Amino acid sequence: MKNNRHSIDRSLMNLILCIGEIVIGALLLINPIAFTSAVLVALGVILVLLGGARLMGYFRAAPEVAAQSGGLVTGLSFLLAGLFCIFRWEWFVLTFPILTVVYGVLTLANGINKLQWAVDALRLDQKYWYLAMIGAGLTLVFGALIVFNPFTTTSVLWTFIGISLIIEAVLDILCFVFGKK
Fold this sequence. Notes:
Elements: H1 2-30, H2 32-60, H3 63-69, H4 71-87, H5 89-94, H6 96-123, H7 129-148, H8 154-178
Helix pairs in contact: 1-2, 1-8, 2-3, 2-4, 6-7, 7-8
């Protein structure tokens, strides 16, 4: 019963992640720069809050405890990174080609993970293993295209990333729905 519950929890989490990918993909298609800036500013706010909390914890702690906590360095680092994200989010947009390569590498790693899942499904004689294989193949192709970046404009690349996220998520949901034996 416990293994079945863990499997349901994991499946539900995967489904939620797929829905999140679809939402992010749609937002990237609608307005990629606004979406990116909003994410960066939100990240900045979170970092500023975490930095403030670490700094307060550092100064509230006993000197012996604070000296070993690293709270001052961590708090100031979070605070500065957060302020950078809030006030200099344009820097990330300008360095997008480098960030795109990182995203592409992560997408390739995700594709390799999906390939493992597809091969496992095939070896376990699951009926719809080929859906997982198609999803893995597309993820690998999308990742390779992103890494090698054949696009000439950022907007085309944002559109491509948005569409690829939506397609991958839909295929993952199909695997989830039809992947049961």
